[in-house]
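Saturday, quiet lab. Running sequence design on the structure tokens for the scaffold JK sent over.
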């Protein structure tokens, strides 16, 4: 089975990031959090939908965003996704712990994790981390 089949033939775009951005985090925990967000994005995005990964920066923060096309969430329900054992889909593969663990690992790194619903379209999950000053 090739990667396109595994990804449900979703389009995946990665926006270039400034290579001078630095954050102080546990590399493995951050990689696991981003990996989990991407895995969920591909799992819940409609077939032939789009998933994107981008990194943005302000003077003091670095934002890592994963956007999907899951169809959106009911109003006021987005933050509930970070509760342990929370599952919002008919797809019950897994235990409903991934986003909770991501949320906790991002907080342990001094960051914040948020989700923004795009009604009728999807969601944007944001990992917001303190930026290290440029050398």
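Result came back. Writing it out in full:
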């Amino acid at each position: 089975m090739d990667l396109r089949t595994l990804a449900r033939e979703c389009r995946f775009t990665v926006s270039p990031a400034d290579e001078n951005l630095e954050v102080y985090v546990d590399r493995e925990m951050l990689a696991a959090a981003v990996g989990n967000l991407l895995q969920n994005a591909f799992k819940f995005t409609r077939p032939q939908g789009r998933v994107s990964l981008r990194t943005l920066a302000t003077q003091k923060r670095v934002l890592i965003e994963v956007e999907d096309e899951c169809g959106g969430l009911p109003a006021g329900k987005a933050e509930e996704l970070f509760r342990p054992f929370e599952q919002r889909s008919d797809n019950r593969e897994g235990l409903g712990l991934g986003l909770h663990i991501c949320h906790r690992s991002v907080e342990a790194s001094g960051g914040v994790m948020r989700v923004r619903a795009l009604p009728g379209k999807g969601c944007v999950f944001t990992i917001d981390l303190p930026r290290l000053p440029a050398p």
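Notes for JK: The chain has three helices and five strands. The longest strand covers residues 122-130. Ask whether to fix the surface positions before the next round.
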